[in-house]
């Protein structure tokens, strides 16, 4: 379990939390830091929405975070669905800090399309909100034409993601 970077499986989170010691530090909005004293590795505890549930789930991710490129690699290669989910959730969270990931993620999916099955793509598509066309870039101080260009960029990324979804469905990777 310690070779994982993201854990959202609630049973595994509970087991892992029993091994961790709180650091009484916050690392972000509703996030707490813990340490595994046997490995000296820090973990961040965070909340996320559980699919089809009224309650939030608890997730754990190593802290400090890996690079955006590494997070994308994890999303595309992990054997654990909850780790794919956690990686994409972090990508989405990082977008609030103005760290763009969509173009890189879509490009990596295109390069690896024959290795990505419908289930993996579905997790990535939904958790990273690749269906979202909203402009995520700063608009203050920009000319209207720049804002329009940014908005068009996000629409194009969503269109690419939709085409990839259809292509993966046609390929039928299982």
Structural notes for this entry:
48% of the residues lie in helices and 19% in strands. It has 174 residues and is α+β, with helices and mostly antiparallel strands. It folds into 2 domains: 1-64, no CATH class; 67-174. The chain has a 5-stranded antiparallel β-sheet with strand order 1-5-4-3-2, with helices on both faces. Helix 2 (68-77) runs antiparallel to helix 3 (81-95) and helix 4 (102-111) packs parallel to helix 6. The relative contact order is 0.12.
Radius of gyration: 17 Å
Task: Estimate the global geometry from the Cα principal axes.
Answer: globular
Along the chain, the helix and strand elements come as EHEEEEHHHHH
Tell me the strand percentage band.
Answer: 15-25%
Compute the separation of the termini in Å: 25 Å
Low-confidence stretches: none
Number of strands: 5
Helix percent reads 40-55%
Largest sheet: 5 strands, antiparallel
Please state the structural category. Answer: alpha+beta
Number of helices, where a helix is a run of at least 4 consecutive DSSP H or I residues: 6
The mean pLDDT is 92
Number of domains: 2
Q: Strand arrangement, largest sheet?
A: 1-5-4-3-2
């Amino acid at each position: 379990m310690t070779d994982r970077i993201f854990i959202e499986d609630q049973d595994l989170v509970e087991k892992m939390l029993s091994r961790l010691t709180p650091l009484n530090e916050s690392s972000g909005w509703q996030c707490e830091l813990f340490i595994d004293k046997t490995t000296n590795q820090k973990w961040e505890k965070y909340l996320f929405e559980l699919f089809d549930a009224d309650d939030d789930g608890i997730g754990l991710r190593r802290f400090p975070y890996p690079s955006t490129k590494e997070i994308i690699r994890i999303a595309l290669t992990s054997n654990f669905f909850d780790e794919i989910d956690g990686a994409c959730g972090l990508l989405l969270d990082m977008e609030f800090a103005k760290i763009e990931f969509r173009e890189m993620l879509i490009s990596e999916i295109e390069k690896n399309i024959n290795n990505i099955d419908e289930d993996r793509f579905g997790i990535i598509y939904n958790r990273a909100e690749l269906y979202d066309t909203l402009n995520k870039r700063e608009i203050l101080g920009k000319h209207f034409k720049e804002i329009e260009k940014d908005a068009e960029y996000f629409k194009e990324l969503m269109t690419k993601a939709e085409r990839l979804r259809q292509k993966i469905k046609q390929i039928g990777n299982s």
